[in-house]
Design brief:
Blueprint lengths: L11 H27 L3 H9 L15 H12 L8 H4 L13 H17 L21 H23 L1 H6 L3 H5 L1
Helix pairs in contact: 1-5, 3-5, 3-6, 5-6
Length: 179
């Protein structure tokens, strides 16, 4: 931020542009995770989930709380919230015709569901780390209603991830699911 003599922010437009770029990059990151899941690139997913060069490990591209998970799931499950539908914005190979329209959303949401399971593996290193605390529900009635409608879709994605024993083993979540 840059300030003038009266401590007013003078570069608000650049700050907003940078924040939008970060948001689009994270959106691309989650779409990439969905693509890797779709293509069964489990080792690459494991690398995304485990790689860190800091001590203690930090993962700025991954969610840190259940609230983050459910906000992401809510965002990606609504294919028409963005200006351009997700399947047009991030086309997956072999999923480019009308009959497969919801599959891009399904794979991205499945990746986010995998990140939900990951929350239970995160180590609490500081007292303020609350990886598995229940999220605060939205106060807006329409958002709350949308979350309620997404519960069954989330359950479907979760059951599909849990039943994929090969994926769970490859990313090291098989022990988490057995405990």
């Amino acid at each position: 931020r840059e300030y003038d003599d009266e401590w007013n922010v003078i570069n608000k437009k650049q700050i907003d542009n940078r924040n939008n770029e970060r948001k689009r990059f994270k959106e691309l990151h989650y779409a990439l995770g969905g693509l890797l899941l779709y293509k069964k690139q489990h080792r690459a997913i494991n690398y995304l989930l485990e790689f860190s060069q800091s001590e203690p490990p930090a993962y700025p591209l991954l969610p840190v709380s259940m609230a983050d998970i459910f906000e992401l799931f809510d965002f990606f499950s609504d294919n028409y919230r963005a200006q351009l539908p997700l399947d047009m914005k991030y086309s997956f190979p072999e999923l480019d015709n009308l009959g497969n329209r919801g599959m891009v959303v399904y794979w991205i949401c499945s990746y986010i569901t995998l990140l939900f399971i990951r929350q239970y593996r995160l180590v609490k290193r500081y007292v303020y780390h609350r990886h598995t605390d229940q999220p605060n529900l939205p106060e807006n009635i329409s958002e709350l209603y949308r979350w309620q409608n997404n519960i069954s879709y989330f359950k479907k994605c979760l059951n599909d991830i849990i039943s994929n024993k090969e994926l769970l083993k490859d990313v090291g979540f098989d022990k988490t699911m057995n405990s």
